[in-house]
Specification:
The complex is a heterodimer of chains A (111) and B (113). With 111 residues, chain A is mostly beta strands. Helices cover 0% and strands 54% of the residues of chain A. In chain A, strands 2, 4, 5, 6, 9, 10 and 11 form a 7-stranded mixed β-sheet that branches. Chain A has a 4-stranded antiparallel β-sheet with strand order 1-3-8-7, with no helix packed on it. Helix content of chain B is 0%, strand content 56%. Chain B contains no helices and 11 strands. Classes of the chains: A mainly beta (111), B mainly beta (113).
Chain lengths: 111, 113
């Protein structure tokens, strides 16, 4: 079975801190994604990557950056965390784009 | 702009009945549509994919229909069980290159024993 892991399940940070969220997949998938999920707003795509060192903006990239130096690892970076970035962050991967495999999520609280 | 609508109100049904969830979309013609299940505090899990040239797809107690004229997909769970209680999300490819999925807000299903 495909396994997508995320570095933390829960994270508490202070406003202005730099935050790194890491995601690792073990199935050699080409595509990786970062979403955030908020009540009433559903899942929204932040960034995705279809290859090493490649990235594409999703619907809400502002305030975020990403890094994909290795195929299995996709990092989401909050350069200067703000309270409106408090959310559930979900990483996903896919190969043929016929389905996405999601990680367990990171619940981030920015104080 | 593309829009995907799912009933934001929870659907409450009795165990053993058929649950029917709706996904409507506008301003787009997706090549395929997917359904996911999400339990509280967890990531979504893929259930089914249906392509634009398929009218219906089944998997065990699950059935999905896809009406490209009505721009609607229906998701059915027959003989529902309390373990089916979860939030169900539909998702569409934003472009035919298949690079991005757009998710609906999800419908929460509660199956009461």
């Amino acid at each position: 079975d495909v396994k997508v892991t995320q570095s933390s399940r829960y994270l508490v940070k202070r406003t202005g801190e730099k935050v790194f969220l890491e995601c690792v997949q073990d199935m050699d998938h080409e595509n990786m994604f970062w979403y955030r999920q908020d009540p009433g707003l559903g899942l929204r795509l932040i960034y995705f990557s279809y290859d090493v060192k490649m990235k594409e903006k999703g619907d809400i990239p502002e305030g975020y950056s990403v890094s994909r130096e290795k195929k299995e690892r996709f990092s989401l970076i909050l350069e200067s965390a703000s309270t409106n970035q408090t959310s559930m962050y979900l990483c996903a991967s896919s190969q043929l784009r016929d389905r996405e495999y999601f990680g367990p999520g990171t619940r981030l609280l920015v104080l | 702009s593309q829009k995907i609508e799912q009933n934001s109100e929870a659907l409450n049904i009795q165990e053993g009945k058929t649950a029917t969830l709706t996904c409507n979309y506008t301003n787009y013609s997706p090549a395929y549509l997917q359904w996911y299940r999400q339990d509280p505090g967890r990531g979504p899990v893929f259930l089914l994919l249906i392509r634009e040239n398929e009218k219906e797809k089944r998997k065990e107690r699950l059935k999905v229909t896809f009406d490209t004229t009505l721009k609607q997909s229906l998701f059915h769970i027959t003989a529902s069980q309390p373990a089916d209680s979860a939030t169900y999300l539909c998702a569409l490819d934003m472009n035919n290159a298949g690079n991005m999925l757009t998710f609906g807000g999800g419908t929460r299903l509660m199956v009461k024993p």
